[in-house]
């Protein structure tokens, strides 16, 4: 998406898809976050291993924080010129703030930085889940994949 030239058809299409999927993901994120907060949730991590628990809690909090920052900054880049975001022709997510090229550029810098960090964090998170499964041999991954109940 970043390397495409202006006249490449994907220059516009890839960004439209990125933004539309982003809005749908943002809606799901809010629902998921409210669900996680409102739902009493058993803490499955080993309470005796406080370093692991702290790392997992910290990583999960960072994953949520990065996603919120990505959604908000993405929205601010897209709406910097006062245009709403078309979501696959189904509806338009409106631009709520006054135009500001400066705010749009700042949001762009934040978006790029946080996206890079997020991609690395997801990689580490996935590696940690595989470590649990293949090295610690516990049921963390199976539980997440709903192979095991509880
Ligand atoms: C998990 C969520 C997201 C990830 C990982 C992500 C990732 C990225 C990446 C890697 C870029 C290229 C950055 C660059 O090098 O300039 C980008 C650009 C962009 N993203 Fe996202 N994005 C996400 C969500 C969103 C959302 C929700 C929106 C809008 C609703 C959005 C709108 C944009 C726009 C407009 C650009 C172009 C930026 C520019 O031209 O400076 N993104 N995104
Ligand atoms: C965009 C990619 C991902 C994001 C944003 C993400 C985010 C999260 C978050 C926030 C949690 C904490 C629990 C919750 O709030 O639901 C979690 C738990 C977990 N995730 Fe991910 N995850 C991603 C990808 C993956 C992948 C690819 C795997 C495995 C291959 C994975 C395996 C797990 C496991 C095993 C847990 C622990 C569940 C538990 O303690 O019961 N995740 N993930």
Automatic annotation (TrEMBL):
Source organism superkingdom = Bacteria
Question: For this chain's UniProt record, which GO biological process terms are given?
Answer: respiratory electron transport chain
Membrane topology, from the record: Multi-pass membrane protein
Membrane spanning stretches: 20-38, 59-77, 113-136
Going by the UniProt record, its keywords in alphabetical order are: Cell membrane, Electron transport, Heme, Iron, Membrane, Metal-binding, Transmembrane, Transmembrane helix, Transport
Cellular localization per UniProt:
Cell membrane
The UniProt entry's GO CC annotations, sorted and at most eight, read:
plasma membrane
Domain (Cytochrome b561 bacterial/Ni-hydrogenase): give its ranges: 7-145
Q: Name one GO molecular function term.
A: metal ion binding
Q: Which family, according to UniProt?
A: Belongs to the cytochrome b561 family.
**Descriptive protein name:** Cytochrome B561
Species: uncultured Thiotrichaceae bacterium
């Amino acid at each position: 998406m970043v390397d495409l030239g202006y006249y490449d058809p994907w220059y516009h299409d890839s960004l439209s898809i990125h933004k539309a999927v982003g809005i749908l993901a943002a809606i799901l994120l809010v629902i998921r976050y409210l669900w996680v907060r409102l739902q009493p949730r058993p803490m499955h991590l080993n309470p005796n291993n406080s370093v692991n628990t702290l790392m997992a809690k910290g990583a999960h909090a960072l994953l949520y924080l990065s996603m919120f920052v990505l959604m908000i900054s993405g929205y601010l880049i897209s709406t910097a010129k006062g245009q709403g975001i078309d979501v696959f022709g189904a509806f338009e997510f409106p631009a709520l703030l006054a135009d500001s090229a400066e705010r749009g550029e700042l949001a762009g810098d934040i978006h790029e930085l946080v996206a890079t960090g997020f991609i690395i964090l997801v990689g580490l998170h996935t590696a940690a889940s595989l470590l649990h499964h293949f090295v610690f041999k516990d049921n963390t991954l199976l539980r997440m994949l709903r192979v095991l109940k509880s």
